[in-house]
Amino acid sequence: MAANGNGSLTNGAVCTLAKPIKCKAAVAWGPGEPLVMEEVEVAPPGRLEVRVKVLFTSICHTDLSFLKGENELQRKFPRILGHEAAGFAVVESVGEGVEDLAAGDHVVPIFNGECGACVYCKSGKTNLCGTYRVNAFKSTMALDDGTRFSVVDGSGVRCPVYHFLNTSTFVEYTVLDAACAVKINPEAPLEQMCLLSCGISTGVGAAWNTADVSAGSTVAVFGLGAVGLAVSEGARLRGAARIIGVDINPEKFTKGNDMGVTDFINSKTCEKPVHEVVREMTDGGVDYSFECTGINDVLREAFLSTHDGWGLTVVLGVHATPKMMPLHPMELFDGRRITGCVFGDVKGKSQLPGIVDKCINGELKLNFDGFITHKMPFSDINEAIQLLEDAKSLRCVLHL
Predict the structure, then answer these.
(1) Any catalytic annotation for residue 307?
(2) Would the pTM of this model clear 0.85, i.e. be above it?
């Protein structure tokens, strides 16, 4: 169905309910290969699924990692990547059994779904879902283990195109499990809200939910990419007294200051281990550290930078398999703790709408615009990927 620039359905739109749609997608055909703009056929949504028109999408380092094929066990091609900004979308059609979404609703896709009915969703101790939780090895829909995307070549042969992280947003229309589509206030600014699909929710949520950063506390953030800066933003909003940003790129320090970072450490120029520098700066170590790089050696430095007795390290970086945690169990006996979190421990469908409402009414002042360093047309997606790989962008928002 047609949509105007604000994502609202326009009068006189042709109904495509229950019909396949042909549209443009950036398809990954193999590891390390540039994405190729293809005409794909998007099937109608099945039971408990929705088909949405993607208006904005962005690129996360996780997309880059999968595109490179860094983990052989997760390689599955051809594939439509994209999960983070899956930006902002308008529900185009809904499948049987979907009760909380309707055509015309504004939604943010989420890679970590919430069915609302399983034992996990009913628990207040986790944001995982028994069926729709994030699964890096999953490449099909939950309903029938099939795909909703296909490419038809010149001879009429149909080739299935696989899904990615429950979302697949590098495409003009995508099909989601309804559990992975969050209905939000239609007044929300579209380009900004797309960042709630991953980066901001993950980082801010890690500070608020996982660590529960307290006012007056000290924080160290290892890796000042979008997620690390979102952690800093969350800690700033919680009133942390000192937020130390650690990175090898000094150009990120200025941006970090806008997100609440008070001190900077360039780990490349340190003459001693970074954890020793942090301990000296904070009289024994920080209260909370956040590892946002996916590098084992950095994880160890983050852990050792916390204060013994009560320090907490939160792991956010995506670590390559089969590397294991660089800690000895006895190191936990000094009172330091370490934990991981998925999607900032945010329950997407039940909690994100409230966060969006608070942003709209001014109750919550998240610095969305500070994360968006570039805006480009969807056709320039390979250029946007290169900007991210060269560390020249935080989030490049692509408009479809």
Answers:
(1) no
(2) yes
